[in-house]
Design a protein that fits this description.
This protein is an alpha/beta fold. Helices cover about 35% and strands about 25% of the residues.
Length: about 270
Amino acid sequence: MITTPVIRIAGLRKSFGDLEVLRGVDLEIARGSIFALLGSNGAGKTTVVKILSTLLTADAGSAVVNGFDIATQAAEIRESVSLTGQFAAVDEILTGRENLVLIAKLRHLDHPGRIADEQLERFSLSDAGGRRVATYSGGMRRRLDIAMSLIGSPPVIFLDEPTTGLDPEARLDVWQSVRDLAHGGTTVLLTTQYLDEAEHLADRIAILHEGRILVDGTLSELKALMPPAQVTYVQKQPSLEDVFLALVGRRTAAGNNPTDTAAPAVAIPTAV
């Protein structure tokens, strides 16, 4: 994997009136990787994505996406990225194929029909391509939404809580689509509240809490922040959920003191 950062964020800040949503966010995301940004509701995940995709303007700080500055090169960034929001943005009256053809035409691409057929095959939707999207399941709509986002082969895609409201089977379908994107060289920034989603998909994970990044690392590095597992008959390693709740809960209880770095002990169940 090429490790040159495709996204660099430094000191990003954003407020809405008196509400300070981002309070100095710093991140680097490697090209061709899946990066998961975790956080509770209101942590600022969607605000980060909107700033990086030039839908919002930052109050302070800087960011570079695919070599372009968000403050001075918004048009170039919009050509480089694609954004899939929390709910599938598909036209239910049209067929799946017609949705894809429409996007290809809006992007002024040659051979829109061929592009649509390629995307239907890529996301295992060929058999449903002639059906109206109103008949699709939630997982099929989400796969179609991602397929539409990838028309034109953007090097960076933002997936903002892509499995919200999906059943377990549909979530697995979307997970596989995300893996396929990264294997094809696309850089994926994934925001999610689902910790198991980050565990299964991400090369690196950051936890955003109250506008700040608490930790940023691989799953193994984050697990290493927890106390060593206690062993009686079996050993239980801390999960990403243990790390997340310990970090977020500790700072909430401690009055958001960023110097409070002592991790609480975690009770480990033992076999009897």
